[in-house]
Design brief:
The chain has 258 residues and is mostly helical. Helices cover 76% and strands 0% of the residues. The radius of gyration is 33 Å and the shape is elongated.
Length: 258
C-alpha cells in the first residue's frame, strides 16, 4: 500500500511541477522582455530632407562644442587667465580650488555678456522659435552680436586680424563686415591672451617685491635652509586682504571690457 501511495505522489509531482515552473518562466520572460527598436535607413525623397538632416547634424555639433564657444568667444578667457595669475602671484597652489575660480569666472562672464546674450535672444532665438525666421537667419542674428562684442574688445588694435588675414591670403578688408568670422575668432583669442598676460604682469610686480625683500632678509640673517615662500606668503595675503584685493580685481576686470 505504501508503495502505491509513493508511486501516485511521484506521478503527481512529475505531472504538476514542470507546468508550474514553465508558467513562472513565461511570466519572467514577459517581465524581462526588452522592446525592439527598428532603425531603418532609406534614401531621401528630395534635397530638402538632405538639407534638414545636415542642419540637424550642424545643430548637434554646435551643442557639442558650446563649452569651447563660451570659453573662446566671450569674456571668460581673460577672466580665467587673470584669476590663475593672481593665485600664482600669491604663491597659492590649490586655494581657491579650480572649481571655485572657474565658477566665479563663469558668473562674471554672464554679468559682462548679459547685454550680448539678451540681444541674441531677442533678435535671433525668439523670432526663430516663433517661426518668424529661418535657421540661416537665426544663425546670422546670433553671429552679429558676438562679432560686435569681439570687435569692440579689440578697440582698434587690429594687428591680430591683419596677421590672420595675411595667413589666409585674404585682401585687406575695407570694413569690419569684410572680416570673415573664421578669421575674427582666432584674432580675438590672441588679443584676449595678450591682454590677460599684461594684467598678470601688473599683478605679479608688487608680490615679486615682497618675495625679494623676504629673500634678502633671510639671506642676511643666514637662514638659508628656510624657504622664502613660507615667510612671504603670509605677507602677500595680508597685503591682498588690506587692499580688498578681490573687489578691486573684479572691478578692474569688469571695467577692462568695453
Amino acid at each position: 500500500m505504501k508503495k502505491i501511495v509513493l508511486i501516485v505522489l511521484l506521478f503527481c509531482a512529475i505531472g504538476i511541477t514542470p507546468t508550474g515552473l514553465f508558467a513562472q518562466e513565461e511570466v519572467a520572460d514577459e517581465a524581462l522582455r526588452v522592446p525592439f527598436v527598428d532603425l531603418t535607413i532609406r534614401e531621401p525623397d528630395d534635397n530638402r530632407e538632405v538639407a534638414l538632416s545636415l542642419q540637424l547634424l550642424l545643430l548637434l555639433a554646435i551643442i557639442t562644442i558650446s563649452p569651447s564657444i563660451i570659453i573662446l568667444l566671450t569674456s571668460f578667457l581673460r577672466i580665467a587667465v587673470v584669476f590663475d595669475f593672481i593665485r600664482r602671484a600669491l604663491s597659492l597652489q590649490q586655494v581657491p580650488p579650480n572649481q571655485v575660480l572657474m565658477g566665479i569666472a563663469l558668473f562674471m562672464t554672464m554679468f559682462i555678456m548679459w547685454p550680448t546674450f539678451t540681444d541674441i535672444y531677442e533678435n535671433s532665438f525668439r523670432p526663430f522659435a516663433d517661426g518668424e525666421m529661418s535657421i540661416e537667419e537665426m544663425y546670422e542674428g546670433a553671429e552679429a552680436p558676438l562679432r560686435r562684442f569681439m570687435f569692440t574688445q579689440m578697440d582698434g588694435n587690429h594687428k591680430d586680424i591683419q596677421l590672420f588675414m595675411k595667413l589666409a591670403d585674404k585682401p585687406k578688408p575695407a570694413t569690419a563686415a569684410d572680416v570673415p568670422t573664421y578669421v575674427l575668432i582666432p584674432a580675438y583669442v590672441l588679443h584676449e591672451l595678450t591682454v590677460a598676460f599684461k594684467i598678470g604682469i601688473l599683478l605679479f610686480l608688487p608680490f615679486i617685491v615682497i618675495d625679494m625683500v623676504v629673500a634678502s632678509t633671510l639671506m642676511s640673517m643666514g637662514m638659508i635652509m628656510l624657504p622664502p615662500v613660507m615667510i612671504s606668503m603670509p605677507f602677500k595675503l595680508i597685503l591682498f586682504v588690506l587692499v580688498d584685493g578681490w573687489s578691486l580685481l573684479t572691478q578692474q576686470l569688469v571695467m577692462s571690457f568695453q
